[in-house]
Design goal:
single chain, mainly beta, 2 domains, four-stranded mixed beta sheet, three-stranded antiparallel beta sheet, 7 strands, 43% strand
């Protein structure tokens, strides 16, 4: 079982607990003392919620962190229209190169 800060927005963060088998539960929102993150290893991924212009509804794009100590499991956001992107090489060398996984 892993507890993570799912999202940071302003002075608030959304928290989630991930159980074995990628089951997840919301732990609710809490105040956050952080506004900036300086350690590249503590963020597993950034997940962006999108609305499709073709009216297929909402979907997510997960951008996996190349330097993360703990990876975000791909089956956490695995809706039919969701997808994941990752870096195959150091982002300091190739900052705009993303590969779909």
């Amino acid at each position: 079982m892993t507890d993570i800060d799912l999202a940071l927005y302003g002075l608030w963060q959304a928290n989630v607990r991930i159980h074995p088998g990628a089951k997840h539960e919301s732990l609710g929102d809490t105040p956050s003392g952080r506004r900036w993150l300086h350690d590249r290893e503590i963020i597993s991924a950034v997940v962006v919620l999108h609305e499709s212009p073709e009216n297929i509804g909402l979907f997510t794009i997960s951008y996996h962190n190349y330097g993360a100590c703990v990876s975000l499991p791909q089956n956490v956001f695995d809706g039919e229209d969701d997808f994941h992107l990752t870096k195959t090489m150091n982002p300091d060398i190739a900052p705009n190169d993303w590969d779909r996984i």
